[in-house]
Amino acid sequence: MEFLSSSLLASLIGLVFIYALLSILVSILVEWYNHRFKTRGKMLQAAVEQMLNDPLNLAYGQIFFGQPMVRNLANGENRRPPQYLAPDLFAEAVIDLFGDEGVPEVSLKRELVGDSPENQKLSFQAQTEPEDESEDPVRRFRLGVELMAESPLRQMLLAFHRKSGGDYLALRQLLMNWYQNQMDRVSGWYKTKQRGKLRWAALAVTLLLNVDSIFLFHTLRHDDQLRDKLTEQAIEAVAAYQELDSAEQKDPAQLGLISGLMERDSASEERPEPQQVLREIQAYREEMELPFGWSQRLPPLSWFPEYRAKYADDKWALLLGPYVHDHSFKFHWYSSLPLYLLGLALTVFALSFGAPFWFETLMKLTNLRQAGKKPRDTQPQ
Fold first, then answer.
1. 13 and 366 in contact (C-beta within 8 Å)?
2. Residue 301 CB coordination number (10 Å)
3. Rounded distance between C-alpha atoms, residue 269 and residue 265, angstroms
């Protein structure tokens, strides 16, 4: 139990807390990219078109997004496709789509009407199938599908109709199940693409802020004051995190708010701007004197002889002299440079997991630390 209350665990908590803060910027950067390039809506549209487009008939997927109930979901100002489509709406739109193909043709019957020859007029009367049959959406759906040329899509839709037994609700449920199964696969594709974007965003944040995980950890191991401050803030953030619901725990803006990184006004915005979050991280870094960023006091700039002499009495130089100053590009660069590059690589790898992962990890570490505290001796002297 001694390890659980050691400075090593506190250093890990501080490091994970910094990862959590930087991962908020990574997640917001990815969300900004998705919104800017309409990736969610485009992937949803591509998935539905893949389901409905039929090379042997028509591009029903494209026609689907022209349906009034679907078209109203899109953002007409910037031509943004809908980012979400409810299964019941999909099913009803598909029934209407193919039902429109099954609307019976109207024939006109001409006849003379009037009580006398001089008052007779030519009248046109539409002849269609009986109203109760032509207005049945399930029957119209079947007629529309039967008019299609033979294709896998036609066979599947006819199978849905047969299984439904002509019942509207049963047909609707079958189409909803089809859509949900497809969306489960799309969700997997989307997450795979998200992981790639998170890696690129993590690389950008790591290089932009010069975050060396090895240097961070060594600093926390030696700087008791910084370690204690970060640990205290991490415990407060975890307490606030546990009060959030499951949706809020995945929202980068809410995570930034509970961690003290973002102001309430910024977090309440529909989509926080990455530039604003970056400025708040830089302000937090300066306030806490966190050991990352492009500074002459920090590696790799501190390795140059002119900066090594200028900041010889700096706090970090006194704490971590062998790594910060003694190893320069002139002397022993072959030992410091690989460590520095490894530290950057570790940061990219860590930040690519996203903010929710690190808040969950932080919660486990803080619980472990609190569980490992020794009870006070209450025995009378």
1. yes
2. 15
3. 7
Q: How many CB atoms lie within 10 A of CB 329?
A: 13
Per-residue pLDDT tens over the stretch 271-326 = 678 898 999 999 999 999 898 999 887 888 877 766 666 655 666 555 555 555 44
Give the span between the Cα atoms of 113 and 119, in whole angstroms.
Answer: 8
Cα distance between the two ends of the chain: 25
Phi, psi of 212 (to 5 degrees): -100, 110
Contacting residues for 22 by C-beta, under 8 A, at least 6 apart: 205, 209, 211, 281, 347, 351
pTM here? 0.72
- 139 three-state secondary structure: helix
Count of residues in the chain? 381
Which amino acid does the sequence have at 210? Answer: N
H helix or E strand, kind and range, residue 364: helix 355-371
Q: Phi first, then psi: what are they for 256, rounded to 5°?
A: -65, -35
Assess contact for 277 and 377: CB atoms under 8 A: no
Hey, where are the domains in the chain? 3-37+196-371, 39-186
In three-state secondary structure terms, 124 is strand
pLDDT per position as a tens digit, 248-261 = 888 888 888 888 77
- Report the SS3 class of residue 199: helix
Q: Which amino acid is at 34?
A: N
Classify residue 9 as exposed, middle or buried by CB count within 10 Å of its CB (0-12, 13-18, 19+): middle
Q: How far is CA 212 from CA 25, 224, 324, 347, in A?
A: 17, 19, 12, 7
Q: What is the DSSP string of 72-114?
A: TTSBTTTTBPPS---HHHHHHHHHHHHHHHTPPPPEEEEEEE-
Residue found by looking up tokens 């499951």 in the block: 246
Report the alpha-carbon angle 198-202-205, nearest 5.
140
User: How far is residue 293's CA from residue 299's CA, in Å, rounded to a whole number?
Assistant: 9
Tokens linked to 11: 């250093």
Mean predicted confidence (pLDDT) in 36-48: 88
Report d(CA 363, CA 154) in Å as an integer.
52
